[in-house]
Amino acid sequence: MADGTKAVVDTSTADAAADEAALAAAIDELAVAKDTAGRASAVDGEVAPTAAAAPGKNRADVDGKNTDGSTDGSPDGDAPGGAAVRGPEASVSEETSEITAPLSVQEIAAELAAGAARKKPAPAAAPAPAKRRPTDPQPTVDPRDTATLPRTLPAPQHRSGDMIGHRYLLEECISETDTFSSWRAVDEKLRRAVGIHLMASGHQRARKVLAAAKSAALLGDPRFVQVLDAVQEGELVVVVREWLPHSSDLARLLANGPMEPHEAYQMVRQVADAVAAAHRRGQAHLRLTPRCVLRTDSGQYRINGIAVDAALRGLPPEDSTEDAQRTDTRAIGALLFAALTHRWPYPEDRYDLRGLPKGLQNVAPDQVRAGVHKGLSELAARALFDHPPHHAEPITTPEELVRAIAQMPRIRQPEPELPAYPVPPRHNTHSLPTAPNPTRVADPAVAPLPASSRPTASRRMKRRLRRVAKATAWTVALGAIGVASWQFVDHLRHTNNGGGTAATSSPLPSVSSTAPSPQASNHNPAPIAIKDAQSYNPLGDGAEGKDTLANAIDGKPETQWITQWYEDQFAPNLYKAGTGLLIDLGSPQPVNSVNVQFVGNHTAELRVPNAAATANPKGAPLSDYSVVGKKSGPAADFSLDNPVTTRYLLIWLTGLPKNSEGKFQGRVAEVKVTG
């Protein structure tokens, strides 16, 4: 307008007319092959009201918007899906280019309506901004979406002697994967050894590793190896952890064989307590392996890599609480299984341990190796398997595992064996020159004691020998004085009563002696009937060869009592020191000799129970049996210097021959006892 105002022109009528004309032309073009101008006029009568009923939609098309409601931002009119849209006519012809028969007006209108509904999204379906996961209040790196970062990025290449962050000097590469490397380094500022993980900061896992390290550092539990620092240095992500120089991981401890029951009990108890405490604070390990469990020189177990190891290897830390608890509980069960059997409970060989055959899956440790502690075997199966053997209830959380361990009878540590001290050589000590520190001549047949224990042990033994010698001398002296006094008083009494003749005619009383009489030495040995034979197993894992026990005392050498088979030979420092055959004579009888016939070369000891073991000989510990003889070979003839009066005799097998399958197995053909 001339006065500066803007003129508002209503173009709705013109736009509607133009849209109707365009739509009618398109319909006429489609229907010309089937009908004449009368059919075309019918099309005008059908479609025009529909087009008029939606003027807004037609106006949007004319104004330069696509039929799906989006603005065509490209000169060629490319839709977001990639199809070129050049106007209503082009759209109709493109949709009908593959139709082989003409359509009716109603079919064309239905196709157009369906196409418009299919292409035009609902207003609520507009693409919303991607929902971000909650990030740390103080992000350590650029808080951009990690989906744009590369999934794999090579581990940073470093060598010994490189300096990281102007502080950490790399010394030795412990392990290296495609995405990260682990090093032993020195903190030049504090002059201490540390462990370092290095990862490229552009890796997709970098932010998760930093977040996991930060949460592990806040845990503050001394049972876990502490995370000391977690930073990004340029293109590197650096995680610094505590280094324990005087420790050994569980894989190294199991290199020589399975653990003794008390040590396995201590391991699983300490690890379960620590993991349960971490879960109560919202932390999970998710990758608990024998390499992560460290035993210090003081006997304490510490756990390495909580949350960090899983993040480094891309394990999903966003699992639910229940899944994380089950994962860690199953991992503790696998550690206990390996400690008891020296086998990895899965088919593959891992951590220098052989895996189980596929036919032995879902079996308890005591079915894999003989001599395994029954309670620990059941505990490992319940923690490891979702369906434990014998319909036992599975353990699914570390807290439940801690309660189950607390309900077990405590496994006591075995008493250490006293060192065998050498017998001093018999020689004339008076002929040796006297000196402040006389030189001792070492016996070449006796191995010297360790240097750490030699001085204190020798002093203690000297003190004990002096005390025993003094006590023995006093006892003998007092006994001699007492006997002499009693004889003198008795002699005086007889002298006063009957004179000298009575004294000489009355013999002095003889002192009792344990020396055998001549009749006893000339006694002919007689066989003693054996009432029963039982299997003696101090570990309590069941009787061995219970179906063949009677063969050892039936008088037939061709029949034998057969033990279980073992993968390894008996040894005191391995899982089992031996197995035994308990002979019952029915009543206490003097025993002169015991003859045992074997099949193959065996090593055996003859033991007799003390007073504590007589009440329950089968359940008494091995320390309640005294060794009276030891033999090796295909037969053992135990001849006793002095008869032993006892009801029970224990034949303790400490060495077994190999059977035809290469397994260690014992066979006792016959046992004979004479008295």
Structural features, described:
It is built from 15 helices and 17 strands. It has a six-stranded antiparallel beta sheet, with helices on one face. Strands 12, 13, 14, 15, 16 and 17 form a six-stranded antiparallel beta sheet that branches. Strands 7-8-9 form a three-stranded antiparallel beta sheet. It is elongated and about 110 Å long. The chain has helices at about 10-30, 35-55, 55-60, 90-95, 105-120, 205-215, 250-255, 260-280, 310, 320-340, 375-385, 400-405, 455-505, 520, 610-615; strands at about 165, 170-175, 180-185, 190-200, 225-235, 235-240, 245-250, 295, 300-305, 345, 355, 525-530, 530-535, 560, 580-610, 625-655, 665-675. By secondary structure, the protein is of the alpha+beta class. Residues about 1-15, about 30-105, about 115-150, about 435-445 and about 500-520 have low confidence and may be disordered. Strand 1 (about 165) and strand 2 (about 170-175) form a beta hairpin. Helices cover about 30% and strands about 20% of the residues.
Average residue pLDDT? 74
Give the termini separation.
141 Å
Helix content estimate:
25-40%
Beta-strand residue fraction: 15-25%
Q: Numbering strands along the chain, what is their spatial order in the largest sheet?
A: 1-2-3-4-6-5
Shape: elongated
Q: How many strands, what sense, and barrel or not for the largest sheet?
A: 6 strands, antiparallel
Count of DSSP strands? 17
In terms of quaternary structure, what is this?
A: single chain
Uncertain regions: pLDDT < 50 for 5+ in a row? 1-14, 31-107, 114-148, 437-447, 498-521
What Rg do the Cα atoms give?
46 Å
Total helix count? 15
Instruction: Return the structural class.
Output: alpha+beta
